[in-house]
Model the fold of this input.
Amino acid sequence: MRFGLFGGATAKAGEANDSQIYSEFIDYVVEAEELGFESVFLVEHHFTGMAQVSATLTFLSYLAARTQKMRLGTAVTVLPWHNPVLLAEQAATVDLVSGGRLDLGVGRGYRYSEYAGFCMPFEEGGERYEESLEVIRKAWTSTKRFSHHGKYWHFEDIIVEPPPTQKPHPPLWVGAASDRSIRQAAEGGFNLLLDQLATPAMLGHRVKIYRDAVEAQGRPFDPMNVGVTRALHVAMTPREREWAYEMRAKFLLTVHQLSTNPNAPPSAMNRPTSLADVRIATEEAALIGTPEEIIGRIKALQALGVEYLLLLDVTGSIDALRVFAREVMPEFKQTNKQRQTA
Amino acid sequence: MRFGLFGGATAKAGEANDSQIYSEFIDYVVEAEELGFESVFLVEHHFTGMAQVSATLTFLSYLAARTQKMRLGTAVTVLPWHNPVLLAEQAATVDLVSGGRLDLGVGRGYRYSEYAGFCMPFEEGGERYEESLEVIRKAWTSTKRFSHHGKYWHFEDIIVEPPPTQKPHPPLWVGAASDRSIRQAAEGGFNLLLDQLATPAMLGHRVKIYRDAVEAQGRPFDPMNVGVTRALHVAMTPREREWAYEMRAKFLLTVHQLSTNPNAPPSAMNRPTSLADVRIATEEAALIGTPEEIIGRIKALQALGVEYLLLLDVTGSIDALRVFAREVMPEFKQTNKQRQTA
Done:
């Protein structure tokens, strides 16, 4: 079992300035690495007004110098916002300065507020995503100069530097939820990010779809190529548990508001539309409870083929990670050891 | 007198892979800070095939974690290549994680090979630069949501995060050479980068133009707002000196080739067109010689109003900086002390 972090610095309403928010989050990541968390996947968002990380690769480059072994991920870099060549350069630079620790999550974006802010038609997202990905892969792997003349981007006789450290290139991760998009992810050679609201039953189904599609290609399935995001809160009392559910609901509904355009096509991700939906999804999906309950939930996920959890700490305070590292992790380290000696 | 570094990691033909080049350059910068160099201004270049730094802000973010007090600069970020909002986010993130140490050099770009690679008409550069700058300043300083509908970029109802740490925003630096562009720089509130081929007489003239234009606006002139780039090589023998001239000529002619389009308008910067030009410019402008000769040259610059030198070490080896710190710097520290007690 492997544990990572998911999310990123976010303002708690009126609590701190951006400099404090980032600086606390940096300390949080550095200590998380010491506690045994093996990755951090940071979101990338724009125009939120709540200090979500925007320049994610720039920030990961800083974290590359502050961490030693941790994988550094994006979840996800929304390709339509970026010049694909500049993005390939930035990602390769993070990969290089980190000694090959970049995991690049990519997506087409789902937030209406971001498409509106960038003045980009939502319908172009898919095409822009595909074209961008093609350029990025070429930029990373081509040792000769190349040209690209697509619908949205034109490059003539270029060679893109630096090359990434990982060969042929850093792992690409995508979020997917429908059977079709999960199969496409497997067939395209992507690692898989599964979302924080999927119930254990959904997760089991999705891991199986992905595994079957990978094996159908004659490749071995590695469960570490499937990262499952889970909200985390160690709640020792019913009151604390209730508070955590409320925090989750508030956060998820804010994200929902940022994402919604009544005229936009529905997203494949599970997105709550009411407080009741959020509540149900959270109760089933989140790791909220006592350490014993959390261990039980993780074991249930493990039985479904999940071996890599990305934890989104509800409070964003290091205390939860400390308790998790002390009370929950050892249970799964043992499993790893047993597996190695088996 | 203040000393900084100018340039960035570059491949020495066939010598090392990109990972080694960056890693050696990182060590170089870290030791330079210990030796007393107070800034590093990194170039940004694309498609060179010689490993010049491309994702400059990403790389500076890494260096922010590896250095303590050093100013972190770009020289320059070519605005026409970048989405101005993403650039504002990236620059603000570097400023934030570095505790307010970013110096953002900006320019319209002069290399034909880059315009051709990005499939951008060279003639659009000036307009794109101006529009981009307008968006970046607004993105950094606006505390309310704003919209921008220009010729090249459209943004609707956005707020750009994080805000930079330095207020109202990180210093903007521009390269300028003609009287007109130097006056514009002063009037626009920019700091000034003066190029490595300008002779001492040219520099004296340019500093005076800038100083007069700043003072004409009723602002005090700060000589630390003028960074003068100089090639550096400590040469103890005539043979070594000859070798340094040759290295310089080779490098400058490569840059010239990357920059040149026979149909493009001439650039305002001093760009050599023959080996003879390079030789003359280098002999007059560069700090190549024994420590005593270099001290003499710097004192001559100081007499012309230059107080901030950005050194472009010809060999890129730390040895030259060590010798410089040991043999040259103390001469100017004394000057500083004398000035303080005067």
Remarks:
- The longest helix of chain A spans residues 318-341.
